[in-house]
Amino acid sequence: MNGIPTERITGPLSAGMGDLTSERSRFIAEAQRQGLHYIHQPYELYSEANHDAWRCLYRGMEDRWQRHANRHFLQGIDRLRLNPNRVPRLEDVNKFLYPLTRFRAVAVSGYLPAFLFFNSLRQRQFPTTITIRDGGDAFAEWPDIFHDITGHVPMHTDPAFAEALVRFGDCAHTAVEMVADIRDEEEQVRRLTSIIRAMARFFWFTVETGLMREGKGLKVYGSALLSSRGEIDHALCSDDVQKHPVQLEWIINQGFLPNHYQPLLFITESFTHLYELVDELERWMRAGRLNNVAPGEPAITEADLKSFLRPVH
Predict the structure, then answer these.
(1) What's the CA angle centered on 1, arms 149 and 174, to 5 degrees?
(2) How is the beta sheet containing 217-220 ordered, strand by strand?
(3) Is residue 6 part of a domain?
(4) How would you classify residue 210: left for phi > 0, otherwise alpha for psi between -120 and 50, otherwise beta?
(5) In 69-222, where does DSSP find H-type helix?
(6) Domain count, the chain
(7) Which of 31, 104, 192, 313 is the most exposed place for a label (fewest CB within 10 A)?
(8) Do 306 and 188 touch, CB atoms closer than 8 A?
(9) Residue 4 located in a structural domain
């Protein structure tokens, strides 16, 4: 697995672990208690209610994908051969994904500190949540397996998009390099906080909520939109949403809240354009132009900072 070990919960698994519903999975709670990030997918714990939630979500998105998703995503959905009726096994997803771009979906227990997440992309590993939202809710405040597998992973079958993600992972290593020699600890933390915030905003306004020109119209490539029927409808059909051509200076200084319908979206021309934007982001980082971005959301946690100050490669 390219250097990322899969960790297993110590002690026996049993029916007492419950199912894998988001926010109440005892399996995930135990993994987090043990401090495990990369875990295995205990497929036997998915309940029929979990599979019903997947079925409801998938069926609710199919017509919207056909109308609003970009062509690379639609090709990716076909290539992955997902079962609309059952939560997927990650090993089955990877059988179709890996030969195309050498990416893999790897199970995680939830939130990863920022460097670990970005470094996973560099290693062609996509951290994948294994729980699923309750009852097929149209909008999930936080990632679940439906968001990660149907929102993100189909895009990972496209070589140009995959290379942009790997390049973005490179930027995390550049960030470590840029602050490594700063002796003033307070200045080191201040500067690193600004850089991580800029990277998080870049990822949000492109990979998570990005729009793309296709023909004479706009299509969605952002995973947060592609995995929520409420969000995708709001993004492309609401008059309340502002849409602008992507500008690096704007997006790195623009705060966002992930658990609300998005009022502001940015348009990328192509995945070649996205790769060029990542290159530009790294050049700005090396030139010190990410050292003082506007304060605000997202919040940068102590775990995020520690992951960059003491990175595990």
Answers:
(1) 85
(2) 217-220, 211-214, 264-268, 242-245
(3) no
(4) beta
(5) 71-80, 90-101, 114-122, 145-146, 159-179, 185-203
(6) 1
(7) 313
(8) no
(9) no
Could you tell me if residue 113 is inside a domain?
Answer: yes
Cα distance from N-terminal residue to C-terminal residue, the chain = 13
Q: What is the CATH number of the domain that holds 274?
A: 1.10.800.10
Specify if 2 maps to a domain.
Answer: no
Question: What pLDDT is attached to residue 135?
Answer: 73
Spatial CA neighbour of 207 closest among 137, 136, 256: 256
140/138 Cα distance (integer angstroms): 7
Question: How far apart, in whole angstroms, are the C-alpha atoms of residue 30 and residue 299?
Answer: 26
Closest C-alpha among 6, 136, 124 to residue 59: 136
- DSSP label at residue 132: B
Residue carrying structure tokens 């960030």? 175
Q: Give the type of residue at 203.
A: F
Quote the domain boundaries for residue 118: 15-309
**Residue 119, pLDDT above cutoff 90:** yes
Give me the residue label for tokens 């502001």.
264
Which residues does 263 contact at the CB level (< 8 Å), separation at least 6? 240, 241, 242
| CA 245/CA 14 separation, integer angstroms | 51
> Average pLDDT over the chain, rounded to whole?
92
Q: What tokens were used for 260?
A: 């609300």
State the pLDDT at residue 311: 78
Residue 9, pLDDT above cutoff 90: no
